[in-house]
UniProtKB/TrEMBL annotation:
It comes from the Bacteria. Keywords: Isomerase, Pyridoxal phosphate. GO terms for molecular function: alanine racemase activity; pyridoxal phosphate binding. Its cofactor is pyridoxal 5'-phosphate. This is Predicted amino acid racemase. SUPFAM superfamilies: PLP-binding barrel. PANTHER family: ALANINE RACEMASE (PTHR30511), LYSINE RACEMASE (PTHR30511:SF3). Pfam families: Ala_racemase_N. Residues 8-225 form the Alanine racemase N-terminal domain. GO terms for cellular component: cytosol.
């Protein structure tokens, strides 16, 4: 047994997947299970499939390849608009691609023809968050013009991404921009289109009944895997947050002053540290650091713990207020924010254990 480690509760992830699959099903929304947080982990991908999720989505082609090579059945959706340099491989591994650049789509068309593969695209439209997508005012004409140049590639629908760069929340208003564009394009193209309306944060609109009925695909990762919504800043009440638990080992426990002694420069990450004088404090050091976790995203089970700081390999925790008796070699448990979990899953120093 080695630490730090993640305890991944496959049953709880399965339950979250079932719950979300039901919620989306009832609202005629196709759920894309997003696996990027777990690097396309095949065991977790299987669980999502078993819960009835039809499409798996990932932002990284290497994660999709990992799933394919582990016999996870598709279809697969590529979430990050592709690099020109990866399109050969994308066409071979991926069924549905989110796109925003005409040049990229034409390259996909060319390669798809070569391999005789039908590729679906979802054209991303920026309704205000300022990440990927063509600006909504220009979208209808641009997509229409492009559609005339495609024969192998199918425009399956349009989509948007919110809550990522600008932190813009999904609302009835910005969703209705998409609906308007969809209706216009459907009329001009003479076919039905899907509207891929968002990620975890958009679940709120389903819960409140405000989601326009035309929005019929959600790409969801965080809610499935962690039961939380970082952009909406909440724990989702009907999902489990104990899907993934981080365990780390104590390598020092001691009393120290709360203010460093000596002239202060910057910390190991180049940050200017701030200290509050609380006198001498009881603290412990955990054998994990910035290379494995984001200290600001650690949520200790022991609510009396205060995370003070992490450098690359050490995390320092104030335990003065805790009623628990910690000793050297003990294990401390945490839930994690999305950003922290992302780093933990990516760290090769963190063992992954499945329950
Ligand atoms: C990561 C990602 C998602 C999933 O977001 P969650 O907040 O984890 O649900 C959806 N769409 C795109 C384009 C993404 O990059």
């Amino acid at each position: 047994m080695s630490y730090p480690r993640l305890i991944i509760d496959l049953e709880k992830i399965y339950q979250n997947a079932l719950t979300l699959q039901n919620l989306c099903g009832k609202n005629n929304i196709e759920l894309v299970g997003v696996t990027k947080l777990v690097l396309g982990d095949p065991k977790i991908a299987w669980v999502l499939k078993k819960a009835g999720i039809k499409i798996l989505g990932d932002s990284r082609l290497s994660n999709i390849k990992r799933m394919v090579q582990n016999n996870i059945p598709g279809p697969f959706q590529l979430l990050r608009i592709p690099m020109l340099s990866e399109i050969e491989e994308v066409v071979n591994y991926v069924d549905e691609i989110l796109v925003s650049e005409e040049e990229t789509v034409l390259k996909v068309e060319e390669v798809a023809k070569k391999y005789d593969k039908n590729i679906q695209i979802i054209y991303m439209i920026d309704v205000g968050d300022l990440r990927e997508g063509i600006w909504y005012e220009e979208a209808p004409e641009k997509i229409l013009n492009l559609s005339k140049r495609l024969s192998t590639v199918t425009i399956r629908g349009i989509g948007t991404n919110l809550g990522c760069f600008g932190g813009v929340l999904p609302t009835k208003e910005n969703m209705n921009i998409l609906v308007k564009i969809k209706k216009y394009l459907e009329k001009k193209l003479g076919k039905k289109l899907i509207v891929s309306g968002g990620n975890t944060v958009a679940l709120k609109l389903v819960e409140s009944g405000e989601l326009p009925s035309e929005i019929n695909q959600f790409r969801i990762g965080e809610a499935l895997l962690l039961g939380t919504d970082a952009t909406g800043h909440r724990e989702i009440s009907y999902l489990s947050q104990d899907t993934v638990i981080l365990e780390a080992e104590i390598i020092e426990i001691d009393y120290k002053p709360s203010i460093p002694v000596g002239k202060i420069g910057r910390d190991s990450m180049g940050r200017i540290p701030h200290f509050e004088d609380k006198g001498w404090r009881k603290r412990l050091i955990l054998a994990m650091g910035e290379q494995d976790i984001d200290p600001t995203g650690l949520k200790p089970f022991d609510k009396e713990l205060e995370i003070l700081h992490a450098s690359s390999d050490h995390t320092i925790v104030d335990i003065t207020n805790s009623s628990q008796q910690y000793k050297l070699g003990d294990i401390v448990k945490f839930r994690m924010s999305y950003g922290c979990a992302l780093r933990a899953f990516t760290s090769p120093y963190i063992e992954k254990i499945y329950k």
